[in-house]
Amino acid sequence: MSSSVHVDASGTFLTLVDGTSRPLRFHAVWLRDNALDDQTRAPGNGQRLITIGDIPADTRIATASVAAETLSVTFAPEDKTVAFPISWLVNNAYDRDKTAPLGWLAGNVTTWDGARTAPSFDWTAVQSSSSAKRDWLAAIAELGFAKLTAGPTTEGALIQVADQFGYVRETNYGRHFEVRTEVNPTNLAYTGLGLQAHTDNPYRDPVPSLQILYCLENSAEGGESIVVDGFRVAERLRADNPEGFALLSGYPARFEYKGTDGVWLRSRRPMIELSPDGQLIGIRFNNRSSAPFVDIPFDQMEAYYAAYRQMGSYIDDPDMGVAFKLEPGESFIVDNTRVLHARKGYSGAGSRWLQGCYADKDGLLSTLAVLSEFKEAAE
């Protein structure tokens, strides 16, 4: 079936029938704002060259036609004609059913529990092969974590991990930090104690969205790493206690860190973060850094704490966690806005030395998009 177009009598929108989906409507002002011509978009980088104020307030569609899978639209009062590929319009259509449930997930996200094994990729392959690097980054984007194996056991090797897709995010902990037993530590991470699964630095705005942990030595007994999918935890809570889910996503928790001189970090964000249209986009959970909750109404505080306890019980559920012991030269990345990480306690015998750093997910997703586009072009 060939594509066709109908312009509403008002000229404020058109309806496109492309034969592959139901009819799709597009407003005149949306089409004009997203015009693909080189007076509207900069050739090369595609950035918009006009402001909303440059578009006439009375913009309407004067004529529209379809030929060779291209929609041609002439706008009044500018008398400007612009061409749109039909495939581009279908991919960017907004005239769709938006009745997704509260806490819906993006289509490229797969949640998991303890039945999953840690996705693992070879250091040398990721360094030398664009397809291996793409697969590694795609696993992190989809699952929120992945391992690298057979890497060097040299200090600072974790920086090379971040260099594969972006940049290190420096914090008050430095460009990178050591995870090993210390005397009088400033953070419980630097002891041999076990740690409940948590997201890092919930007291920051924005939080570092990726964490890299790299193993240099690990001969101590115990100390296995555990990761838990916070999105699967949230799904489980929503199914079992929708009112509790609404409380933890509807009211901000507070987090605070004041461990060293000159540092006092505070944030006010919900434990389960949703976008304005209800998409599940983030988890903040860290018992060590929780400050007093003061933003929940008195008559809902007990229910809030009950939901908090229930969420914590799911996080602690052994069936929810994937456990693995890092060997020297191995590392893993977690999406710190989604995946919680924990550590089993370890003994003083032997040694355990990890280095950690933070990075940001936008760099990873940008690199993944470029590699994926290159693959599609090659195919």
Automatic annotation (TrEMBL):
Cofactor(s) named in the record: Fe(2+); L-ascorbate
Record domain TauD/TfdA-like: where: 114-358
Record EC number: 1.14.11.1
First-level EC class: oxidoreductase
CDD domains tied to this protein: CAS_like
Keyword terms of this UniProt record: Dioxygenase, Iron, Metal-binding, Oxidoreductase
GO molecular function, one term: gamma-butyrobetaine dioxygenase activity
NCBIfam families given in the database record: carnitine_bodg
Family membership: Belongs to the gamma-BBH/TMLD family.
PANTHER family (UniProt xref): GAMMA-BUTYROBETAINE HYDROXYLASE-RELATED, OXIDOREDUCTASE AIM17-RELATED
Record protein name field: Gamma-butyrobetaine dioxygenase
Organism: Aliisedimentitalea scapharcae
